[in-house]
Amino acid sequence: MNLALERFLASRAAIVLAVAIALCWGFWSTPLYDLDEGAFTEATREMMETGNYTSIYLNGEARHDKPILIYWLQAASAHIFGLSEFSLRLPSVLAGFAWVFALFAFARRHADKATAGVAAILLALSLYVGLIAKAAVADALLNLFLVLAMFDIYSYYQQSSRKLLLRIFVWLGLGFLTKGPVAIFFPFLVSGLFYVSYGQWREWLRLVFYPPGILIFLAIVVPWHVAVYLDSGWAFFEGFYLNHNIDRYNGAMEGHDGSALYFILVAPLIVMPFGGWFIASLSRLGRVFEQPLDRFVWLWFFSVLVVFSFSGTKLPHYLLYGMSGVLVLMAMQRESLANRWLSFVPVLLLFVFFSALPQLFAFLVTQTKREYDLTMFEMGAEAFSGWPQIFMLAALLLSVLVMFLRLRLWQRLLLHGFIQAVLIAFLILPVVMGLLQDGPKAAALYAKEQGKNLVYHRAYQPSVSVYRDQIIRHEKAKPGQWVYVRVDKVESFLAEPSPYTKKLVFSHPPANLFAIEEKD
């Protein structure tokens, strides 16, 4: 059996299976989550409804937090396949596929085929990569263009080529249309540090200000900026470049703050179950002055780490912008991985955490008095009890058995990666998303089936607008309309004086719908 597992892990089939499970399975079936997916996809739906493919609107109001490319891709997919979870997430899934392939091609070029295969599996099975690759947001697409630019920058350093240089500016332009300045900031910073570290700053300046490349970048970026200015004036430029870039960096937005150590602690988590492997790779930092690839990768990683550590807004996936190259080094150094405790303890703790979810939720029920949290925790305790907990305990037992296989340490960790991917794709993610979003989705679809317009009561869940196929606003409801009320707002809603009757017509926690009717 050990020989068969070794052959499997060294085969293309292992890469295909990792991608299929972690980056693909079930992306078409789980409901859209709020707020992020709901906001992106409702803006796409409104784009299709209005026919305005220049400016971005959400709930009928201008949305300035991202450029246009992801919305165009989602709209194109929805035009082809119809508006659904499948079509709206498909651009991210395809970006995830391309991300893995780009890393494989880079590692094969600068290392060897076996290393490329291991690196591709590491990327596909890393926890946060699988999550964002199946989400209808801009991050998988941004990571794709970032790694393509970074990989081509290093490849150009190794062997200059006009084709490579021009291609870098293509990736920068597409990345800029996806998420703005961050797509050019890190390639600019990292390449500058790298070239300067070798005393080649003049060569770096020549490359940065390469006229044909700049023209290509401008040809990609400028037309839409001109179009959005003609359509809505300076609003996007002020909202996006000033508010959602400068203000987001200077202060925490939407409650996403943290200490300067936040990303240091998060780094092992986002590549689980390879967190211990990642920590072990840090011991090889001494090679940063010996090998160009090591130097480039660590400059890349630490640039992202340091820059975002001083950012006011902190989200775990920000660090992914700098992790892809590290996974290549981890694959290259796989045979030197020797510390079993460091490798396996984080994995086992994660699986123990999963296995104890019913008890954890039951404990949390006793720790809160907030109606919404109480409802979610009670539903979570019930949803993960019974066969789901048996499934998670079986995964924990299997992970323990894998520890004792007569395989190399890195091979056993890859097997743990497959166990984690199956657990998340087939159980944890569907259950969690179902708990959070089955109710809002069902409420919206029921209102659509009944032909009723919705209004919100002290709620903001844009996914409801997607499923209802309607812009839903916060306003006083009129007779004939239905009101979307979250479970923790029902009491206050019913207590509000009104000349109309409020009748509960639908309930699927945490969502409720009330019909507004004239009094007899």
Description:
The protein has 520 residues and is of the alpha/beta class. It folds into two domains: 303 residues, no CATH class; 75 residues, no CATH class. The protein has 24 helices and seven strands. The strands form two sheets. The chain has a five-stranded mixed sheet. A two-stranded antiparallel ribbon has the order 1-2. Helix 23 links the parallel strand 3 and strand 4. Helix 9 runs antiparallel to helix 10 and helix 10 runs antiparallel to helix 11. The termini are far apart.
Distance between the termini: 75 Å
The share of residues in helices is 55-70%
Q: Give start-end ranges of low-pLDDT stretches.
A: none
Strand order of the largest sheet: 4-3-5-7-6
Main sheet attributes: strand count, strand direction, barrel closure: 5 strands, mixed
Beta-strand portion reads 5-15%
As for the number of domains, it is: 2
How many H/I helices? 24
Question: What is the average of the pLDDT values?
Answer: 92
Estimated structural class: alpha/beta
Outline: globular
Multimerization state: single chain
Q: Would you summarize the structure shown here?
A:
By secondary structure, the chain is of the alpha/beta class.
Give a quick set of tags describing it.
67% helix, five-stranded mixed β-sheet, 7 strands, two-stranded antiparallel ribbon, 6% strand, alpha/beta, globular, single chain, 2 domains, 520 residues
